[in-house]
Amino acid sequence: MARYSAYSLLRNAASHNRHWRQAFRNPDPKSAYDAVIVGGGGHGLATAYYLAKEHGLRNIAVLEKGWIGGGNTGRNTTIVRSNYLWTEAALLYEKSLKLWESLSTELNFNVMFSQRGVYNLGHTLQDMRDIERRVSANRLNGIDAEVVGPAEIEARIPHINLSRDSRYPILGASFQSRGGVARHDAVAWGFARAADACGVDIVQQCEVTGIRRNGDEVSGVETTRGFVATPKIGVVVAGHASVLAKMAGIRLPLESHPLQAFVSEPLKPVLHTVVMSSAVHGYISQSDKGELVIGAGIDAYNGYGQRGSFHTIEHAMAAIIELFPIFSRVRLLRQWGGIVDISPDACPIIGKTRVKGLYFNCGWGTGGFKATPGSGWVFAHTIAQDEPQELNAAFDLDRFSSGALIDEHGAAAVAH
Amino acid sequence: MLIIDCPWCGERDETEFSCGGEAGIARPLRPESLSDAEWGDYLFMRSNPRGEHRELWNHAYGCRRWFVAVRDTVSYRFSSTAALPGTAGEPGTPDAE
Description:
Chain A is α/β, with parallel strands linked by helices. Chain A has helices at residues 6-14, 42-55, 87-101, 103-107, 125-140, 150-156, 184-197, 241-248, 310-323, 372-385, 399-402; strands spanning 35-38, 60-63, 79-80, 118-122, 146-148, 172-176, 180-181, 201-203, 208-214, 217-223, 226-229, 233-235, 255-266, 274-277, 282-286, 291-298, 332-342, 349-352, 358-362. Classes of the chains: A alpha/beta, B mainly beta.
């Protein structure tokens, strides 16, 4: 891997940028690997990277049915934070946030991680009580969090509507200063390049069509480019997790829903932080290009169509204009949908299954992007050691029969 | 926006309805005789298919009745809607009240 540096920029500029090397190879699949990761999104690529880097598994492949950066990794609203209520969730997301803080250096790829802070607004007395509870829980877990009042919100976000006469007046917020945004495609490309440099084969346009079992253990995957033998399969396919589970003959507590997002035309800098509101349900930040990046809620029905209904868009717009009347005449540039796998407790499922050698990492629902490095880090450990890392032990599939759910619905600062 | 054909009221906008998820999940008659895994399966596990899906809908802002729909989860196209088996009254008859 040719390292990126100021020197490499100068050297390539001197040769008119004709000699940049491809960031990662585009190999054909081999007939056998020590482990196969199904799904080349951020989480899958991160898993492959940490498998190679920290666990020494180099003869591995990532199989992606589309292209790198074409799925949910390139379709989300790029928000990173770790202010979850319950200890299990908070520690997992905090591990991820710590990895984000050094990720550009680690990958030698600028993922444009910007810790511009995240505000979660409270609009009712109950919202404010929940915020105080969550902030206290965060601080007990060593996560930076504070409760802020309207005066501080006004100083940081001058265009927000703090009128007491609005339908849902803003009474305060929680603030996580280490939260922020990252460039989502760069995360996929950076992990792909770094994994490739460790010898990982990243195979694009290779769809897994079946999981072959030999009794109680896996023996490989059928793909559109032939059979690939492997003793370990890590499935990280977000909205399609149930489809892959069916191939292996297991059931998951997931439902796939469309989740929509939008960007506006580029504007001069106007919003310097991330604003989320679960009461009116909208979230917004401004990208470095100047576009407002806006997220909606999920559509209520199950869907694999990567698009949702218009009234969901209308609802998100109403929420944003309630918060920021100044944006009422901003035009939207693009709108799209991704498929998210919603779990019953709004927490992921990361762990083993009853089939030996088959591991699932799914159920991240609407909030998986922020967890990309941490998810890969714990999932790599789970696959390599055949047992969960301490941080994901509570996130196994067994919790849906033991009842030890980690209920982050609504508690996780935004309604899922 | 989807146009949904309520068995009682006819075609209406999606915003009048709420989606109740997968249909045909029967509550076990004797929950106390189930293992934790069987109870968990009833409570949480879903088929979540890519393609044809039998699901419940409620005409929340109309007749407020539940009904069963068959819908494709990729194209979102409804292929049928029908009254729940055993529902009192038939669609279109006065006693449907």
